[in-house]
Amino acid sequence: MPRRIGSHHVDVSATRLVLPGLVSESWQRSARLGLRRDDEAAPVLPLADLKNAREQNPWISRLLQPQLSTLLPSLKNSPSIIVMSDAQGLVLDTLGNQDFLHKAQRFALLPGSLWGEQARGTNAIGTALAIGDFCEVAGEQHFLNHNAGLYCAATPVYGPDGKIAGVLDLSTPATHPGRDAVMLIRRAVANIEHDWACNMLNKDRWLLRLHTEHDPENEMIMVFSDEVLLGANRRAMQEFGLSSASIGSVAWRSLFTHRPDRHPAPVEALNQRRYLARQQTHHSARVTVPPMQEPVHPQALRLLNAGIALCITGETGSGKEHLCRALHQQSHWRSGPFVAINCAAVPENLIESELFGYVPGAFTGANPKGYEGKLREANNGVLFLDEIGDMPLAMQTRLLRVLQEKCVTPLGGNGRHNVNFALVCATHRDLQQCVEQGSFREDLLYRIQEFQLRLPPLREKPDLAAFILTLWEQLGGVKRQIALSDNLLNTLSRLPWPGNVRQLLSFLKVLLALYDNGDVIEEETLPEGVVCPGLRTAPALSAVPPPPDELAALREANGNMAQAARQLGISRSTLYRRLERRSVS
């Protein structure tokens, strides 16, 4: 007998399907949510909400984009798309070939679509979120009938805090399942989780990098501040039975018998296993090439010297932190420290202790010597608060008090410590909009944004070709006598570069790795694996360009926002803004 749930029931036998256990359990959840197999609703969020969701998930642009170079070439000629969602199953972006999708499915996979189980029933994205692990759903295993034409495989992406940040999904026709590409998807997610944990390294933290003797490629990463675990990639979490509750509470001594040095050496773990491990400190990490070497903004320098709070705004990858470091080096504060903290990268339960410090014994796992915190560390120097728009409201209140009173009280203590520093904040968010939405304090906005400096995106740079050549020289291309042809340079200077300087730097580094000394790089001879959206299809400039038709471009691209943006010669974010203005008008 089928199990009845309210007024509905799911009769698995009647579907003539043999459902795997996880899929069968998902069907039961779908029915309990009140869904019917013939439901055709396709919930989609407004563009404004989609924009906010994208801003809250910077890991996609920062960590996923480099992985696309390994994914897209293998999918170029196959009927498949890559879908990126957040932790609620909201589709944030899609890439690939959507021609195989029926019209209804194409619409349902547009950015802004909701694919949690509560919205679509059993599906790879929603079910992967529900079980917290890889999931594939083929054809009629989908709960909703109108999704039966799809084969989907999805893997959750875990942040270093042990929580799911989103999902990477591969969708193909059910008649041609893309199982050969599934391993690429899983490898890309593992690389994202690995790089995310590595990016937490700074001068107050150290990494423990370890692997088993027989599996050197699957590296486990743990991030520590003194003795306390601050983050880890999923491989390390699974290996040592850790969870999000372990972050900020587990000490390395409860995991290992001793702390390794900088050279790979055997280490005994308390789980009775042996690993090859080494520690990596901020000083031993590879030094990256600074993205810009230009004179700093003269007004910003004068204001920083006067102690005026600066707020630098700009798109992701536009060089906000580099500008701040350059301001520090040329300012009256240069003899003092430069202290940077990314408010979006520190777990919410740790940001208070990171900023304000703590006294010995303030909480379980705390350093027995205490910790002075970033605010005191920045005394007589420059404090740079990156992604200030992601700071929790409770921390905004405490920060405002420090800025007003110029003194800090550490966690667990009563003492007050005077501080004097220049403050520079940066964000890619519209802070005024955040104030209106209630996620940012208005009085703090006035205090940190005494002067606002906007960094324009790369596509607005007046002489982008000259800038590209400057970067090329800084990276060593001129020294190696590798030349960018005039045609390639002209094409590169016309591209939208949605990832800005960070994306351009990555692209140029790929070219340097692929070509030999003395080569001339032509656009026509670029390897297919080199990923640079719009590189081969950049539209020619005309004297009087016709007005863009965003909706027509979107229709022509079958709903693919990235492809439509390339056709228009603009970034995806610009296309979203234009569509949003059209919908409002």
UniProtKB/TrEMBL annotation:
Instruction: Cite the Sigma-54 factor interaction domain residue spans from the record.
Output: 286-513
Please give a single GO biological process term from the UniProt record.
regulation of DNA-templated transcription
The record ties this protein, via SUPFAM superfamilies, to: Homeodomain-like, P-loop containing nucleoside triphosphate hydrolases
Extract the InterPro entries matched here: AAA+_ATPase (IPR003593), AAA_lid_NorR (IPR058031), GAF (IPR003018), GAF-like_dom_sf (IPR029016), Homeodomain-like_sf (IPR009057), HTH_Fis (IPR002197), P-loop_NTPase (IPR027417), Sigma_54_int (IPR002078)
Q: Does the keyword Signal apply?
A: no
Does the keyword Metal-binding feature in the UniProt annotation? no
> What keywords sit in the KW lines?
ATP-binding, DNA-binding, Nucleotide-binding, Transcription, Transcription regulation
GO MF annotation: an example: sequence-specific DNA binding
- Kindly give the Pfam families that the UniProt entry links to this protein: AAA_lid_14, GAF, HTH_8, Sigma54_activat
Q: Which CDD domains match?
A: AAA
For this entry, the protein name equals: Sigma-54-dependent Fis family transcriptional regulator
